[in-house]
């Protein structure tokens, strides 16, 4: 396994810039997730790392070795695709061992490695079956097994769970995470699902329009997003973003569209009268008695529950507000309530640049 470093990587298709001056360092053995909306360039960036797409500018190094001009087969990587990409006429064993047979490895080594990986993935009983005889989850395990037997320096995953149902996604997500813990191989994983990113990634790189918006540990991005975009993209339910103005005395802010005034938490130094955006995570609201000072008046629009989690959607003078809780709620649509934000958890962004205003410790 090896570290992966991208230095000022750019990619253009004609006049269209798809990747724009991306620099990312992925440590040896790290599980890095590339995430972003459709069209952000994450799959293109993965293909560039794999050597399947030539870059227009910049360099890529694996373990300090410049691989920019090397083909995919010279980079010692293994890729797992969304579509499984299994050979339909080959059995599970033949699919998993294909790269080893192509490299003319000794027969005993091929059998030993294939059997060991099949046991690791729970595929022992399926080795003589064809792909059409497997479920989606089993096919994805075979695709992962084919990558693992090669013992590559890095694994690249291109949205491997997109074709699975919700229950299987959770199961295979856990299997990939466990495999990484066991093998410790450097991995780059592309997804548009922020739950996958938060639960699997040791590092998350958020892409927007071909640029890195922010990179860091999952909870760093959740607690201290650099921008409104990252704050809104990471987290489910999504963060509540509200326009506000800093009070003239610079010790409070007033939420526009309502009469709520909130004391600024310790550590914020913002000039009075400045237009800002205030971000409040859904779990940082309390539902209180009507009319409490500093609370936001609201009317329940809907109550969504998954059994373990409850989201109350409210109409307020500030727009639609989401309130999340582990407690079950007896609220009904149409009920009038008050919402009290936890001021210590506020995130404040400059309204023009949409960049977070730093809070001193």
UniProtKB/TrEMBL annotation:
Residues 4-234 form the ABC transporter domain. PROSITE patterns: ABC_TRANSPORTER_1, ABC_TRANSPORTER_2. Coiled coil: none annotated. Keywords: ATP-binding, Cell inner membrane, Cell membrane, Membrane, Nucleotide-binding, Transport. It is a peripheral membrane protein. The keyword Metal-binding does not apply. It holds the Pfam family TOBE_2. One of its GO terms (molecular function) is ATP hydrolysis activity. NCBIfam families: PRK11650.1 (NF008653). This is Sugar ABC transporter ATP-binding protein. It comes from Rhizobium oryziradicis.
């Amino acid at each position: 396994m090896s570290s992966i470093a991208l230095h000022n990587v750019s990619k253009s298709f004609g006049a269209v810039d798809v990747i724009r001056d991306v620099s990312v360092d992925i440590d040896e053995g790290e599980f890095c997730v590339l995430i972003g909306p459709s069209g952000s360039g994450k799959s293109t960036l993965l293909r560039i790392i794999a050597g399947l797409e030539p870059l227009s500018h910049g360099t890529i190094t694996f373990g300090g070795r410049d691989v920019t001009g090397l083909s995919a087969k010279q980079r010692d990587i293994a890729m797992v695709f969304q579509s499984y990409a299994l050979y339909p006429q080959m059995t599970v064993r033949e699919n998993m061992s294909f790269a080893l047979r192509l490299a003319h490895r000794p027969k005993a080594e091929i059998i030993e490695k294939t059997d060991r990986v099949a046991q690791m993935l729970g595929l022992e009983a399926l080795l003589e079956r064809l792909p059409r005889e497997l479920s989606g989850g089993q096919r994805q395990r075979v695709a992962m097994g084919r990558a693992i037997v090669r013992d590559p320096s890095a694994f690249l995953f291109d949205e491997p769970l997109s074709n699975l149902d919700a229950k299987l996604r959770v199961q295979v997500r856990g299997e990939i995470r466990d495999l990484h813990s066991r093998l410790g191989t450097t991995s780059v994983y592309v997804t548009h699902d922020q739950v996958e990113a938060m639960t699997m990634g040791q590092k998350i790189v958020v892409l927007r329009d071909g640029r890195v918006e922010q990179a860091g540990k999952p909870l760093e991005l959740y607690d201290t997003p650099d921008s409104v975009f990252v704050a809104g993209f990471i987290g489910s339910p999504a963060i509540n973003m509200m326009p506000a103005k800093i009070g003239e005395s610079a010790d409070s802010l007033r939420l526009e569209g309502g009469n709520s005034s909130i004391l600024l938490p310790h550590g914020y130094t913002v000039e009075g009268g400045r237009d800002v955006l205030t971000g409040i995570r859904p779990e940082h609201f309390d539902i209180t008695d009507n009319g409490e000072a500093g609370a936001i008046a609201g009317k329940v629009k809907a109550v969504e529950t998954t059994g373990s989690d409850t989201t109350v959607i409210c109409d307020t003078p500030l727009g639609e507000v989401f309130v999340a809780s582990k407690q079950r709620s007896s609220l009904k649509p149409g009920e009038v309530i008050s919402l009290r934000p936890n001021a210590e958890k506020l995130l404040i962004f400059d309204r023009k640049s949409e960049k977070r205003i730093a809070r001193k410790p």
